[in-house]
Specification:
Structural class: mainly alpha
Distance between the termini: 110 Å
Number of domains: 4
Largest sheet: 3 strands, antiparallel
Radius of gyration: 42 Å
Length: 256
Amino acid sequence: MRHLQVERAQYEADLAQRRYLKVDPDNRLVACVLEAEWNGKLRELEAARAVEEQENQIDQHQVDAQERVQIEAVPERFRQFWTDPKTTVRERKRAVRLLMEDVTVHKADQIVAHIRFKGGATQTITVALPPPFAQSRLTAPSTLEAIDRLLDAYTDAQVAEQLNQQGYRTFDGLLFESMHVCQLRRHHGLPDRYARLRAQGLLTADELAQHHGVTAQTIWRWYRQGRIVGICYNDRRSSLFPLQEVDQQRLTTELS
């Protein structure tokens, strides 16, 4: 840029000289005006050359050890500034404008961004296209497999807790809740905890009561007393029961 300014000043000085040399010497008034213009252009040329020389000397300044340390620390300081929670979005945008001259983005099979920085350096970044909106809202197959596996041993709320502990998240990055598990297993046709326990042969309170010749209320009382084992199949503590025997003496006493 500075050299172009010198060339421009040189061109204007040469042009002023040619105009002066072409004037009729007898026309003293015009000759004086053109001579003054030529002298002015020569002074501008000299000033442009002086500025160029001064800036060239500045460019040749040798960086000392302390300045080098400060320069090398800039990337880390910028990273700290960028990741600082106190840094506002407005400040980040301003920092980007100070660093970058412009960005050209091309979108085809992937996104290609050509970045031109203020100092003249360039960088090209390639980013994969985001998935279509409908696809982005799909739950990952690995998550569905984990839900299917966990339902063998847990209720919906317990499955959600296990998923969160294992690092799984919903399609939009949220922690799982029981309603998410319920919606997903229904949408994808996954058997719930009740169906899985029934498939293993577990009985309802009525069925176990019929087996022992007692009422369902008695089965529930035995369950609360810890006399029989029950397995919860939902988050309301509803339970199914494996076929099991009870103390025959106590059973006879209750039936008598």
